[in-house]
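Quick one, tokens below. Sequence please?
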């Protein structure tokens, strides 16, 4: 019973700490949101994938959600108003699933979100501009590949190249999943505002823009996460913050 209380207290403490950090970083802008003038992707998007790695899917999701809601309450609304925390929280959830070795859940979650985005009525890229999907489909193959099942072991290890690969893999797949979730929300919000032809022009204009954004986020997350994880692994493997299997 005592260990259960200790575990719960630890989860609450880490949730509060990371939520505060996430909310603070949300105050700084990273990229403008194309199609939503005056709205920006926050710097917190860089640490969202790392939150799942450090905290696991459950606590990481809670911390990112609370941090995002705090940001909204301070008047810093994102492109989706009070729900602007969802893409970042989804990145933390997805990276946590990978961190925990839950390959099936991660694969199903990514596949369902991608299919919903691809085939969304009126605006889905399948109907309007299929080439837009090239990077999301490439990421799908990475998620479905056997590599995912080895990432957990790499994150717990000390070999630098494997650890760097694992952090980059988690950051890349998580930020792509976050992008799909955000794009799906964008479709749902503005679906009736554009004709299919206009949606096609929008996807065409973004086809080589969003990969650059995601590459910068991936590189930044890797540069921040790699030394932190390596240092923590020198004391004990990555399970220390995450009580999940």
């Amino acid at each position: 019973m005592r260990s259960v209380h200790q575990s719960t207290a630890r989860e609450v403490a880490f949730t509060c700490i990371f939520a505060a950090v996430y909310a603070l970083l949300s105050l700084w802008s990273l990229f403008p949101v194309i199609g939503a003038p005056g709205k920006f992707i926050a710097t917190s998007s860089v640490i969202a994938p790392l939150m799942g790695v450090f905290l696991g899917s459950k606590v990481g999701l809670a911390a990112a959600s609370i941090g995002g809601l705090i940001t909204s309450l301070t008047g810093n609304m994102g492109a989706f108003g009070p729900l602007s925390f969802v893409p970042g929280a989804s990145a933390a959830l997805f990276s946590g699933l990978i961190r925990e070795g839950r390959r099936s859940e991660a694969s199903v979650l990514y596949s369902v979100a991608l299919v919903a985005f691809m085939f969304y009525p009126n605006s889905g890229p399948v109907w309007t501009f299929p080439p837009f999907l090239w990077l999301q489909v490439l990421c799908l193959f990475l998620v479905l590949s056997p590599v995912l099942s080895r990432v957990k072991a790499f994150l717990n290890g000390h070999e630098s190249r494997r650890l760097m690969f694992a952090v980059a893999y988690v950051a890349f797949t998580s930020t792509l999943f976050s992008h799909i979730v955000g794009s799906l929300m964008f479709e749902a919000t503005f679906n009736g505002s554009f004709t299919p032809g206009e949606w096609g022009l929008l996807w065409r204009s973004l086809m080589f823009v969003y990969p650059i954004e995601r590459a910068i986020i991936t590189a930044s997350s890797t540069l921040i996460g790699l030394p932190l994880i390596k240092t923590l692994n020198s004391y004990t493997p990555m399970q220390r913050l995450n009580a999940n299997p």
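The CA atoms of residues 103 and 201 lie 35 Å apart. The two ends are 19 Å apart (CA to CA).
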